[in-house]
Amino acid sequence: MSHSPSLIPEIVASAEEFIALRHRIHRHPEIGFEEVATSKLVADSLRSWGYEVTTGIGGTGVVGQLKLGNSNKRLGIRADMDALPIKENTGLPYASEIDGKMHACGHDGHTATLLAAAKYLAQTRKFDGTLNLIFQPAEEGLGGAARMIKEGLFELFPCDAVFSLHNAPSLPIGQFALRAGAMAASSDSVTITLQGKGGHGAMPHFTQDPIVAAASIVMGLQTIVSRNIDAAETAVVTVGALQAGTAPNVIPDSAKLLLTIRALAVPVQTLIEERLRKLVKHQAESFNVSAEIEYKHISRVVVNTPDETAFARKVLTEMVGVNHVIPMPTGLLGSEDFSWMLEQVPGCYVLIGNGVGKHGGCMIHNPGYDFNDEALVYGASYWGHLAQAFLTA
Ligand SMILES: [Zn+2]
Ligand SMILES: [Zn+2]
Questions:
Q1: Which phi and psi angles does 353 have, rounded to 5°?
Q2: Packing angle between helix 36-48 and helix 15-27, nearest 10 degrees?
């Protein structure tokens, strides 16, 4: 590996230790709220470096706090710890040893990266203020961030700003990408259950057919983005599953639709929900079936605040140079539950290059994906520089 000169030497020197730790986490992936061993590894490591450690916040969440000097500045840095229910197919020597579970989003890398910075910051003691390292469970659609907040995260550990990162396949190693404003989309998960009355396929007039209603609703939903949302805004309404019926000559009692909804602005997210509820209710009524809607807000729009984004950009530019800090023209349609933290506290979420082609270019949530170990020193140096620049007298 060849490194940029402004990476932190102590972190570069400890790279092998934290790469080994990342492989250890990778071998034993734990999905949301089941991160018992990962959480213990994090807590034990933080304690051994002198952090005051709080466990059990948001189930398996961990916060490590270190106060130095007299400054009243308070910084939060967050990493996620959970794996996915995917069968790994990388063939790596440190591949998952747990069938059907895998670190396919690189949260093993995010955790190891923050731990590498944690050790460096505790051992060098070159900051003044309160450092809160937040290790979050259950980022993958299970509500880990929201649960930590509900259980008092920011009352117990007040932060003036909070930062996080995510690896980005196809962004070269040593590069970062960010933008102020909407950085990643909101994600809502919707289940629509249509209840009608089944019967013989040859005598539909004795039934209340949920399939015809479902088909009409699927088409109707397409008009939310095309007819209700400003064409200059970004939104997606996807029906990912339509479940009904078992036989050609039987009209079933019920039908189920499963949807994912994405938006890059809170008012758009709100408008989609309003339109969806009305459209489904009235369409169902018009077909003489009833509709039950279960609307889950998985994550909000990730909104990077201007001052904190400028601060992150400055730290990154000093570290890797202006050509390696990529301004993003638009936000991502992917989602991230760090958004719940950014609703409480100003902050910034950045992407860190995971490499291109065979070395880190495989997309996240794919059975062939792996976090690129070469990214670790860049992420950890970013956290080291950021903490030292933020926490000053
Ligand atoms: Zn993911
Ligand atoms: Zn992720």
A1: -60, 130
A2: 160
Ligand 2 mean position, distance from CA 138 (Å): 10
**Cα–Cα distance for residue pair 131/99, rounded to 1 Å:** 37
| Residue ranges with CB less than 5 Å from ion ligand 2 | 105
The reported pLDDT for the residue numbered 186 is: 96
| Nearest ligand to the C-alpha atom of residue 108 | 2
Residue 116 CA, ligand 1 centroid: distance in Å:
22
Could you tell me if 305 and 342 are in contact, meaning their C-beta atoms sit under 8 angstroms apart? Answer: yes
> Above 60 in pLDDT, residue 3?
no
The CA 73 to ligand 1 mean position distance, Å, reads 31
Residue 381 identity (one-letter amino acid): S
Phi first, then psi, for residue 50 (nearest 5°) are: 100, 10
Could you tell me the distance, in angstroms and rounded to a whole number, from the CA of residue 361 to the centre of ligand 1? 15
State the pLDDT at residue 358.
Answer: 85
CA of 337 to the centre of ligand 2 (A): 9
pLDDT at 201 over 70: yes
pTM score, two decimals? 0.92
